[in-house]
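S1.2 Input.
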Amino acid sequence: MGISCDDDVVIIQQGKSPGDPTVVTVNCPDEAGLGCDLCRTVLQFGLCISKGDFTTDGRWCYIVLWVVSNESSMKVDWESLKERLLSACPSSCFYKVYLNIQTSAPSPSPVYLVKFWCFDQRGSLHDVTKVLCELEILIQRVKVMPTPDGRVLDLFFITDCLDLLHTQERRDHICEHLMAALGEYCITCEVQLAGPEYESLQGNYSLPSAIAEELFSYLPTDDKASSKALSLSSASLKNTSITVDNTLSPVHTLLKIQCVDQKGLFYDILRTSKDCNIQISYGRFSSTVKGIRNLELFIQHKDGTKILDPERQVALCSRLKEEMLHPLRVIVANKGPDTELLVANPVELSGKGRPLVFHDVTLALKKLGLSIFLAEIVRHATQYCQWEVYRFLLDDSREFPLRSREARNKIEQRVRRTLMGW
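S1.3 Output.
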């Protein structure tokens, strides 16, 4: 049985008036984790999902997302977004389930190195990051190294969502945009295949035990959850609930979720479901009411059965609640005589990290007027999952004496609120 290709797989309808949401409709064959992959793509373009509907019969899915730009959003190339969403969809030309064709997993994109010399300037790291994100470049690792003569060497290890970095035109295009963004502060820019220097950054990084304890000690079964790394608030706790109902459907378990709204909420829920091998057959994400979001998810195990085991229900709800309350960890700590900002988020089982974290953190630091002395992205493994950890050594200043607890709290709060979209 063949299904012809057409232009209806992904449809993007712009809002009629400024401020109206853009409606993204996806109609394609289904596969495990597709909703998570689509939401990650939407996040990569700096968009927030204000409302959503998902439905699937396990073979074909229909997804509608209402998306809006946030205040500090990047420029959105809607045609490029459509192409990226199309590329995430299973082939609709010949539906592989009906044809029983085995498709091979795509090979990973090669890693390239952007080597960028510039004169030190507050906020320049964010300016470079924003350009790369707008060019649909994924940042895998970063090394930022200042020199005593007032220059900075930025090393960005990147992959290209468009898979065009093997062409000189694409590499030149990236350098041109970076040099235009930095203007007279730019010295040189080059893009090349990453060599042994990237291999040395691979693998997991061992954080100091005291820092790891503060970032990762909280477990979803803890009653206190007192770590300052978490995004807890009385409003979040009061308005977060998950109800399991097995009476409304003979074949599905209904999850009713209520929580405080935040950027990336749908992605976090779908990522967690994907990693827990849960199939969402139908989902409705309602618009926020006074900052509160309500969701209904009809779910199954991958074998098509309901979630009836009480222990399995408790484990799933606990994991979802953790992701809704604490999708990111943020602390400011001492590193010898220096002050270090650390931001951590869980990595998908597929190995993919959360989109735009480095972009949002550097934006928050730029708005605070803080200089970044050193920055890097590393991976850290705990007993329960792998984390992506963003490390920033901050420069002391008169406005922000970093030994002050008040200044540190302000940094943590600004970074967290930027990441959460509050």
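S1.4 Remarks. The longest helix spans residues 310-325.
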